[in-house]
Amino acid sequence: MTKYFSPARTARGFTLVELMVAIAIGLFLSAVTGTVYLNSKNMFNYQDAMSRLQENARFAMERISRDVRMAGFSTCGSLGGSVANTVNGGTTNWWLNLGAPIMGFDNISTPPSMAPNAAPGTDAFYVLGVGGGDISVISHNAQAATIQTTQHSIKPGSILVITDCSQTSVFQMSGPTNANNNATNINHDTGNNASPGNCNKQLGANCPTAKAYTYSPGATVLQLSAASYFIAPSTNLNSGNSLWTCSLENQTGGTTACVELINNVEDMQVQYGVDTDADQSINAYLDAGSVSNWASVLSVRVNLLLATPPSAGNLSSKAQTYTFNSQLVSAQDRRVRRTYSSVINLRNRTK
Q1: How is the chain split into domains, by residue range?
Q2: What is the dihedral angle through the alpha carbons of 243, 249, 250, 256, rounded to the nearest 10 degrees?
Q3: Distances from the Cα of 213 to the Cαs of 108, 142, 172, 206, 216, in angstroms?
Q4: Statement: the pTM of the whole predicted model exceeds 0.90
């Protein structure tokens, strides 16, 4: 005989206790999974923010070091000695003051011209040197204000330095147009449309004195390099302060261009290693306000304070207390801050 089983008799559901146990286990697993996810997300955000912080600090120090090392340097060594500046304005423009190829400003209250909008209480400095490839002089016609050179791509309006190691002259290139980047001459005449222009076409003395000087074959032409570094408010909303630079690089209008290098750089403090007994070794590190002779500066110690961006959120469990420039500081938020320091020697000034 065939037996039939009724489904109603064999099917049974979960009891209330079983359902509650299953829900509890599910909630526990969800909580564990959510906690792991949030912790992983927070750890990723922290590591990403710290990686960017270190990357920004490395870039800032490399950029500053490049310019500081070359302060006052030319192919002959120092830019000092017999220097004739025939550019209108001369030392009234910070980027033409070759008598002081490095100079700093301490605890800024009124921003100097080389550090527009500088944040109060921060430091700033500028350096001058030469940059770009060396261009050899083939011949020089001082009367015609024309220098025959090897092929180059320099454009009119550029501020140039010519030197034969006994005489150095600074002038603004008046021509040729060099539209094809293959010119083989450089003019240093007056009357060009570029600003500020040359006070005369002679290269032997500072403006306004006119004194002829002819450079012999083998002299070198280079582009003047000038850069300032300072802390100023960021142009990005809610980003605090940034590291800025004003540079003469690639400029043909007789002025410097200021750009924002790195966001979230809250402060910069700078000390200068000075040689007080003329033995080419550092005797002390001083703030800019205590340096009486900038020609005695052999090195620069740069201290930067960087913070994680506000967009990264509160990455610290509580407000930090950190040491910057030998002072203990308590933060007002839970962003992470790191201090970075580097000592940079000026090329050819130290042993």
Answers
A1: 50-345
A2: 70
A3: 41, 7, 16, 12, 10
A4: no
